[in-house]
């Protein structure tokens, strides 16, 4: 393993403010020079900023930190799921076979992205232990939040479908906590929204289409969406994202830009 890769592995300790002062300063210099680490740092920040929580300034117990790092290490070492089922340009009007999942070896950058989500969700699962107070809408009872840790149970890759946005890409993660599941969507390389335009997520299960929420992207074409999955939507077959004239649609009106592959 190279010196650069050894340094890259300190990303999560840096994110959790666990590095000694001298190593923290050294990693800041590395971060400025390493495009891969900068991308993963930005991914962590985007996902973190979408979470509906407020956090008090309290210390994380050492035992909890150790468990979080162990889980992150396992996630980095495990291969990602890849979706093998192709879907048509107009997939929402007819049924197609469910996605078939394989387990090829993944590039290290994609494993870091998966682990980036894992560390954030590990923090969510530890909420009761270090002072996070929920203020957003939640389907979890208080007892469930205390008893059930959050974990990433699945992930899907999104591929570009619009030739006008060839650089578009994204990932979806399924976060599970107790009996609750949440979809987290992260996208990059999309065109900027004009006026009331919005990107809309569509969840398809057994031929039935569900509205998974809307979002807009920043100046770089990046965006994040979180959506609480109900029992009808869990175990979906595929996901598509369309560019809509506004955020009020109940069915796709615009062109498809991203979808599961």
TrEMBL record:
Q: Which UniProt keywords apply?
A: Cell membrane, Membrane, Transmembrane, Transmembrane helix
The membrane-spanning stretches of this chain are 112-132
| Topology with respect to the bilayer | Single-pass membrane protein
Q: What is this protein called?
A: Anti-sigma-W factor RsiW
Where on the tree of life does the source sit, at the highest rank?
Bacteria
Q: Where in the cell is it found?
A: Cell membrane; Membrane
Q: Which BP terms does GO give this entry? A: regulation of translation
Q: Which family does it belong to?
A: Belongs to the zinc-associated anti-sigma factor (ZAS) superfamily. Anti-sigma-W factor family.
Which organism was this protein described from? Paenibacillus piri
Residue intervals of the Anti-sigma K factor RskA C-terminal domain:
113-250
Q: Which residues form the Putative zinc-finger domain?
A: 9-38
- Listed GO MF terms: sigma factor antagonist activity
Question: What Gene Ontology terms describe where this protein resides (cellular component)?
Answer: plasma membrane
**Primary location group:** membrane
Question: Taxonomic lineage of this organism?
Answer: Bacteria, Bacillati, Bacillota, Bacilli, Bacillales
Q: Which Gene3D superfamilies match?
A: Anti-sigma factor, zinc-finger domain (1.10.10.1320)
């Amino acid at each position: 393993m190279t010196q650069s890769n050894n340094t890259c592995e300190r990303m999560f300790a840096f994110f959790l403010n666990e590095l000694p002062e001298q190593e923290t300063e050294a990693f800041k210099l590395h971060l400025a020079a390493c495009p891969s680490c900068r991308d993963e740092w930005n991914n962590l920040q985007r996902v973190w900023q979408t979470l509906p929580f407020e956090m008090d300034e309290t210390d994380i117990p050492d035992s909890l930190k150790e468990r979080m790092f162990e889980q992150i290490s396992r996630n980095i070492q495990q291969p990602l799921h890849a979706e093998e089922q192709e879907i048509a340009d107009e997939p929402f009007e007819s049924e197609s076979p469910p996605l078939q999942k394989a387990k090829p070896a993944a590039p290290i950058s994609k494993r870091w992205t998966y682990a980036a989500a894992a560390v954030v969700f590990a923090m969510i699962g530890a909420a009761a232990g270090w002072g996070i107070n929920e203020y957003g809408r939640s389907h979890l009872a208080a007892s469930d939040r205390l008893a059930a840790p959050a974990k990433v149970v699945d992930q899907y890759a999104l591929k570009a479908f619009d030739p006008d946005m060839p650089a578009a890409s994204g990932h979806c993660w399924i976060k599970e906590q107790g009996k609750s599941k949440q979809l987290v969507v992260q996208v990059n390389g999309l065109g900027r929204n004009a006026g009331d335009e919005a990107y809309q997520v569509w969840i398809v299960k057994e031929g039935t289409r569900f509205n998974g929420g809307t979002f807009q992207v920043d100046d770089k074409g990046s965006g994040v969406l979180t959506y609480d999955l109900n029992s009808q939507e869990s175990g979906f077959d595929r996901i598509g994202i369309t560019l809509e004239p506004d955020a009020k649609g109940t069915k796709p009106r615009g062109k498809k830009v991203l979808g599961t592959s």
